[in-house]
Structures are given as structure tokens and as C-alpha cells.
Amino acid sequence: MSNKIPMTPEGHARLSAELKRLKSEERPAVIVAIAEARAHGDLSENAEYHAARERQGFIEGRVIELEDKLGRAEIIDIRQLSGSKVLFGARVRLVDEETDEEVAYQIVGPEESEIAKGLLSIASPVAQAMLGKEAGDTIEVTTPRGVRYFEILEVKYG
């Protein structure tokens, strides 16, 4: 898979920091934990050893995953973007036409989405419905609770 993954500079920095921490802190710590657990003797009934090995497997898997994602990252500096249409990096304010509830999101890459922080994956149904639209447009989104309609109130960059 060589397809590029869109990413903001902040998202790239966050994943890079996680990778560095895994390699420089977590990996060495789990190696020490495995060595200490081995010193306790019989490995077949050694819970600490099995837990440490499991943790090591998780760390190694995450390192491989992060290296792949960072290697395919296409960093998009959203400070260079402008316009009125919703594209990657846009900060969008929406209102649910049924509940009048307002929400605000920034469209980011799938690897940096965090809905609680208002970071919405470009691959999500809501983001897909917004792409190419402008303030004043209404979008239709199929959710598990049925079809919902949102009006785009504002689109800004930076």
C-alpha cells in the first residue's frame, strides 16, 4: 500500500513523537521487564513474563504501523490554504437542522482524527458530505440514527 495519507503538520508531529517515545522509552523498558521476569524462573507460569511479552508485541506492532503511516504521510500545511469551499484542513461550523445544535470541526487525516477535540477524519461520512460545499449549503448525512441534515454556517482556514 503506497497510497498517501493526508496529515496536518501537527498530526505528523504527534505521531512522530509517539514513535520516538515507543523506540526510546517503551521498547527498552519492556526488554528490561522481560529480562527481570525471566530471572524469576519457570516461564510457563510466569504472568509477568507473559504480560511483558504481550506488551512487547503491542509496541512492535505500533512501531511498524507508525513507521508505515509516517512514511506515507502527505503533510498539508493548512496555513497555506484559503477559500470558501470545504477541503482538507478546513475549520467548519455546522448546525443540525433538527436540533439547532451547533458543532465545529476541523477536517484532518484519518490518523489524527479525535472527535472529542473537534478533529474530524476526512474519511468520515460527515466530512465526505461537506467536501466541496460552502457556507449556506445544507448537507445530508446518513447516520446510525437515520438521515440528518446540517447547514454549513462557516468555512475558514488557518
From TrEMBL:
Q: Entry's InterPro entries?
A: GreA/GreB_C_sf (IPR036953), TF_GreA/GreB_CS (IPR018151), Tscrpt_elong_fac_GreA (IPR006359), Tscrpt_elong_fac_GreA/B (IPR028624), Tscrpt_elong_fac_GreA/B_C (IPR001437), Tscrpt_elong_fac_GreA/B_fam (IPR023459), Tscrpt_elong_fac_GreA/B_N (IPR022691), Tscrpt_elong_fac_GreA/B_N_sf (IPR036805)
- Keyword check for Zinc: no
| The Transcription elongation factor GreA/GreB N-terminal domain, residue ranges | 5-75
GO molecular function terms noted in the UniProt entry: DNA binding; RNA polymerase binding; translation elongation factor activity
The chain positions of domain Transcription elongation factor GreA/GreB C-terminal read 84-157
> Does the entry feature the keyword Cell wall biogenesis/degradation, yes or no?
no
Q: Which UniProt keywords apply?
A: DNA-binding, Elongation factor, Protein biosynthesis, Transcription, Transcription regulation
Tell me the Gene Ontology biological-process terms attached to this UniProt entry: DNA-templated transcription elongation; regulation of DNA-templated transcription elongation
Recorded hits in HAMAP family, A to Z, give: GreA_GreB
Which NCBIfam families does the record cross-reference, listed alphabetically?
Answer: greA (TIGR01462), PRK00226.1-2 (NF001261), PRK00226.1-4 (NF001263), PRK00226.1-5 (NF001264)
PANTHER family linked to this entry: TRANSCRIPTION ELONGATION FACTOR GREA (PTHR30437:SF4)
**Record function comment:** Necessary for efficient RNA polymerase transcription elongation past template-encoded arresting sites. The arresting sites in DNA have the property of trapping a certain fraction of elongating RNA polymerases that pass through, resulting in locked ternary complexes. Cleavage of the nascent transcript by cleavage factors such as GreA or GreB allows the resumption of elongation from the new 3'terminus. GreA releases sequences of 2 to 3 nucleotides.
The family note in this entry says: Belongs to the GreA/GreB family.
> What protein does this entry describe?
Transcription elongation factor GreA
| Source organism (scientific name) | Marinimicrococcus flavescens
What is the gene name? greA
